[in-house]
């Protein structure tokens, strides 16, 4: 695009093909559209098919001039499992299969492209853009505290703090993550740090992609200053352009209810939503229901599943539990026979569904607590709704998120590395009854700070404006360097 062109900036956005990444980056795409930018959003073929099937995605985005969807292969067979640790196979597949396809796609739209907002967990996007000569801004969809801990992994290795030498070291304090020296334990580090040696592929991938963000023009984080200010200060010592623009769900909700827009936020779900849960919630007393969901990737064993179920039923509290069809690992030939007391207890006080409209659920008057895997979208959605949490992290950033929820922000309880029915029962009762007042007080205060951050003059609102202005300044800055 020539300098002085009257066309708006054109941004290409490419998320890692996972529910949490797609969801938050679609929200960013819509915020940019509302600010008058043109956007090309690139999805994996597999995820785009699911989005079109289960949401009003295409109708919703058709209202924005200059918006288009494009798709690429993720390198995995259609039938390949994309949950649990199997999801990690996506990284290598995309580097081999998707990168050359993506490069050709970008070169085809380069004359009008201002920049790429690439998922910072997909290292090949930055590589391809640099090879072509297009500015890249990284978007990390994890928490700032998680991003910073990933960034500090080389320092932990140099200091001999990882690899972690046995289970007896899990409660040892980690001293080489600046700003977290007093409370971060080995068990709170991202799950990829739990390795026997430095040759572990997943550890290498996460370390390399995080350090590669130094080569990008900027770093977008879905967080806000009042939540993660100390960690953001540490990050800004190494990165010059850091845009903390979250919480994106709250930011977009506020934009869409403005008189000039007058529309409502809707689902970005890769699963079919069961709205019967909302009718069930309507019949429950205020703040009486514990919402339970371990997200889109977590897979439990049958034994873990039963421990949670026993704990929930034994707590005598009402619960709404999200159970994807693939969320419990099944052994070949294993029968699905469950103790009758669990089935009866659920009929009396609970409801189990495959997927929910989570943002609506957390905002419902009947919901008083959230038992969560501690994924970053879920954590932020709970914070925005003022709902206290019990965190049972599965992998990746969830371990450190749960530590911050419990120890730093005092928004709930950290149950990592424990799956015992008695512990589940006690923590549910602590959250919903015995210690409820203190958690509700902290959650209400943080929810107010979240709302303030996206209001006019708030930190996230200001930072979003800065991001958009910086993108506008990139018009005309592209120099093609790859003609192959």
From TrEMBL:
Gene Ontology terms for molecular function: 7-deoxyloganetic acid glucosyltransferase activity; anthocyanidin 3-O-glucosyltransferase activity; quercetin 3-O-glucosyltransferase activity; quercetin 7-O-glucosyltransferase activity
Ranges for domain Glycosyltransferase N-terminal: 11-100
Pathway of action: Pigment biosynthesis; anthocyanin biosynthesis
Main EC class the enzyme belongs to: transferase
Catalyzed reactions per annotation: an anthocyanidin + UDP-alpha-D-glucose + H(+) = an anthocyanidin 3-O-beta-D-glucoside + UDP; 7-deoxyloganetate + UDP-alpha-D-glucose = 7-deoxyloganate + UDP + H(+)
EC number(s) on file: 2.4.1.-
Name of one Pfam family that matches: UDPGT
SUPFAM superfamilies: UDP-Glycosyltransferase/glycogen phosphorylase (SSF53756)
Stored InterPro entries: Glyco_transf_N, UDP_glucos_trans, UDP_glycos_trans_CS
Keyword Glycosyltransferase part of the UniProt annotation: yes
Keywords of the record: Glycosyltransferase, Transferase
Xref: PANTHER family: GLUCOSYL/GLUCURONOSYL TRANSFERASES (PTHR11926), GLYCOSYLTRANSFERASE (PTHR11926:SF1392)
Family in the record: Belongs to the UDP-glycosyltransferase family.
Protein name per the record: Glycosyltransferase
Protein source organism: Erythroxylum novogranatense
Upper classification of the organism: Eukaryota, Viridiplantae, Streptophyta, Embryophyta, Tracheophyta
